[in-house]
Amino acid sequence: MIHTIVAPIIVFAVIVLVHEFGHFIMAKLTGMKVEEFAIGFGPKICSVRYGETLYSLRILPLGGFNRIMGMDNQEYTDKRAFVNRPVWQKLLVVSAGAAFNILLAFAIFTGVIWHEGKAVFPDYPVIGEVISDTPAERAGLEAGDRILYIGKSKIDKWTDIHGALANAGNTVLEVQISRAGVRHTVTVIPANRDGRTILGITAYVQVTPVSFTESLHMAADRCVAVIVGVGKGLMYIISGSPQGEVAGPIGIARIAGNVADTGILPLLLFIAILSLNLGVMNLLPIPLLDGGVIVLTVLEGLYGRKLPEKTLFYIQMAGIFILGGFFIYAMASDITALFR
């Protein structure tokens, strides 16, 4: 129960704080005036002023926010205001949030891979894990058992198991195994589940240590794979494909609680994947998102001055409409998943 409540708070807080810290640090580096950096939302619990910036802790621990002078598009005489800075500096500040989300994911992937090593599937017919309440557990199979025969089918590789179990659901099978060098024969009745015949075992996976340099390369590959997956998911949603699935706040909170129950490393990996999703989504050229601000900043740079207020109003209304529709779609998916 605690995981269900605390894990989502940790996940959202880390991802949003890292995003906002990206905007904050880049604003500082480019000489802009940051009026406040807040951890959390809502009423202040406490605050301290260091230099020109107020650092505050607020009551709702779901991320945080920045107040950078001039990001409200009002006129300012201070040359350090966002609206008065060069276009390239504005672009750096706006894109830094998504960049830091991507860097967070890269750092987590690197650390986990370096700590855990590289998992390799050697295709040995050796049981890695026996899943509870399955035919394999009831038959007495154990992790480390080497499967020699299923019925009359000789098993040389893990991939041979699928063929040996084809159309064998709910039938009595003799499975010959080698355990600590001693042969045993057990009787198993495979189950039919979702159109598949299963025993309830997972494959043996060989874990080998990797160097820090290797972990950097593998983490980069993982980030690219997730980003490509996000792109494909967006295309599925836009095209109306049933493969296009999206989780809203309820779904993410539910997943975070479930993942937290399995351990700290899976939770870290979930944070990495979600951080990448947030980073990529925030760069979409939709008004009110960072990507939309980037497009407007570029247009204003080309135009030589601010866009007309009426034009900005219509652009912002379009952004509200798009994001509102996406939020409703995500919430509907969450509610449907709860009843599924």
From TrEMBL:
Which Pfam families is this protein grouped with? PDZ_6, Peptidase_M50
Principal place where this protein is found? membrane
- What EC numbers are recorded for this enzyme? 3.4.24.-
- Superkingdom of the organism of origin: Bacteria
Where in the cell does this protein reside? Membrane
Which InterPro entries does the record associate with it? PDZ, PDZ_6, PDZ_sf, Pept_M50_Zn, Peptidase_M50
Where would one find the signal peptide in this protein? none
Instruction: Please give one Gene Ontology molecular function term for this protein.
Output: metal ion binding
What keywords sit in the KW lines? Hydrolase, Membrane, Metal-binding, Metalloprotease, Protease, Transmembrane, Transmembrane helix, Zinc
Q: Look up the record and name the cofactor or cofactors this protein needs.
A: Zn(2+)
Q: Which residues form the PDZ domain?
A: 111-181
Q: How does it sit in the membrane?
A: Multi-pass membrane protein
Q: Which Gene3D superfamilies match?
A: 2.30.42.10
From the record, give the transmembrane residue ranges: 6-26, 91-114, 267-299, 311-332
Q: What class of enzyme is it?
A: hydrolase
SUPFAM superfamilies named among the record's database cross-references: PDZ domain-like (SSF50156)
- UniProt record similarity statement: Belongs to the peptidase M50B family.
Protein name (record): Zinc metalloprotease
| Species name | Allisonella histaminiformans
